[in-house]
Amino acid sequence: MDIPWHDIRSVAVLTGAGISAESGVPTFRGEDGLWRTYRAEDLATPDAFCRDPHLVWEWYDWRRGLIAGCRPNAAHRTLAHMERRFDDWTLITQNVDGLHQLAGSRSVVELHGSIWRMRCTQECQTPWEDRTVPLSMAGGALPRCPNCGSLARPDVVWFGESLPGEALTAALAAAQRCQVMLVVGTSAVVQPAASLPLVALRRGAYVVEINPQPTPLSDTAHEVIREPAASALPRWWQTWQRRVTVG
Questions:
Q1: 198: CATH
Q2: Are residues 133 and 238 in the same domain?
């Protein structure tokens, strides 16, 4: 596919757990995600929160403590730098760790929410950020809404819940209009995020996958780089810039 690199104005990026794993963020799934005797699938559900909100908040408090010590890697920083280059840039992430924003990215669509935000279980106000680590739970006290006093929950998408409509709409629109889409560190199996590169492909976008492991997207992407993002993405961006200079 012949790409007029110097004319590219619209870029979308989809990132997954792989990009944050290079910063030391655990995936919290499978064997690595075991906490006490619980799996993520046992705790990240509305039913689990209804049964035992203290247990679920303990788990999220533990997770927040782990993530708080992690820092953006070269892939996060490269994406933040790239954002300043394009007129139309959308970074869509499945991660909840906030490392993209910490690296300097501004146009971020969080499909699965943020572990650093809370929201009222009665939905009386918009979600708010609280980066306290650990959260104050002395005497069994749980986070509560500062507006109505109702129990607060993490502002993340749990198993069995739908993605935020506004975020999904923005992600789909970006996939439909982008000229280039980068798919970085995602397994390309979790829907509906996995369908976004396919939407971009159908609309004629040039799709680049950066992932050490093969995924369902690998056979259809225009360019596949089988390396970790922290090393591959900065090098790929340098190549882009050389193409523009030569063009």
A1: 3.40.50.1220
A2: no
Q: Which CATH number covers residue 30?
A: 3.30.1600.10
SS (H, E, C) the chain: CCCCHHHCCEEEEEECHHHHHCCCCCCCCHHHHCECCECHHHHCCHHHHHHCHHHHHHHHHHHHHHHHCCCCCHHHHHHHHHHCCCCEEEEEECCCCCHHHHHCCCCEEECCEEEEEEEECCCCCCCEECCCCCCCCHHHCCCECCCCCCEEEEEECCCCCCCCHHHHHHHHHHHHHCCEEEEECCCCCCCCHHHHHHHHHHCCCEEEEECCCCCCCCCCCCEEECCCHHHHHHHHHHHHHHHHHHC
Distance between CA 6 and CA 26 in Å, rounded? 38
- Using alpha carbons, list the distances in angstroms from residue 216 to 1, 64, 188: 20, 31, 6
Domain that holds residue 134: 26-69+115-156
Nearest CA to 44 out of 128, 152, 161 is that of 161
pTM of the model: 0.93
Which residue in the list 6, 76, 100, 112 is annotated as catalytic? 112
Please indicate whether residue 112 is annotated as part of the active site: yes
Residue 18, φ and ψ in degrees, nearest 5: -60, -40
85-128 pLDDT, tens digit per residue, is 999 999 999 999 999 999 999 999 999 999 999 999 999 999 99
For residues 245 and 183, membership in a common domain is answered with yes
pLDDT digits 0-9 by tens, 220-238: 999 999 999 999 999 999 9
Cα 167 from Cα 162, distance rounded (Å): 11
Residues 237 and 119 in one domain: no
